Amino acid sequence: MAQGLLFIVSAPSGTGKTTLIKRLVQSVPDIVMSRSYTSRPARPGEVDGVDYTFVSDEQFTEMVEGDGFIEWAHIFGHRYGTSRTAINRHRSNGQDVVLVIDVQGAQQVRSRSDDAITIFVLPPSHQVLETRLRQRSGQDATEDELQTRLETAKQEVVQSDGYDYVVVNDDIDRCVEQLQSIVVAERSRAAVVNETVDEILSAFQITGD
Ligand code: 5GP
User: How many A from CA of 84 to the centre of ligand 1?
Assistant: First the structure.
């Protein structure tokens, strides 16, 4: 069975990427969103094993030392990482996997697996991002944290030009459609459908004799 594809999606905090990717994986067959590990505490409404696997600092360190992550990063004072085993299991079952990770993590994965397909989601404008972050900050962030997130966003958006695809989240339905098109196009690449093509071509030779 052909190995599943690996998609990486990065976007500044507040861009709506989680909503987008949840809708993508619900609407396209055979693609799953990876669930990250984090040492940050759960926010109200977040569920362990659904939004993240929430672990202690000690557990996170153990996983790092045991080479359990294909990438991990310090973000806003906490650590986040992607489990190696989970990704490999899905991909060897032929399922595509989407990692929703920051730019540092994306760089680490790209440097290790040259087959990763990278997508950057941009907010429609700086103003829209600030408004979204302020709306969300009612839940958990202080003004200082908000400014840090905006500053981080500034550093992240300039890195979007290193990604294979860039989509702008100005309209959620349109943006989900664009993501679906990217997945469908990547699945149709000649290198990816090689096995199927070989089978068809060899059948032609047999019947053509
Ligand atoms: P939040 O705390 O708002 O859920 O996430 C903060 C940032 O961490 C987001 O940019 C998100 O994409 C990123 N992130 C979530 N999981 C991972 C991960 O496993 N690895 C890396 N490098 N970044 C992650």
Answer: 16
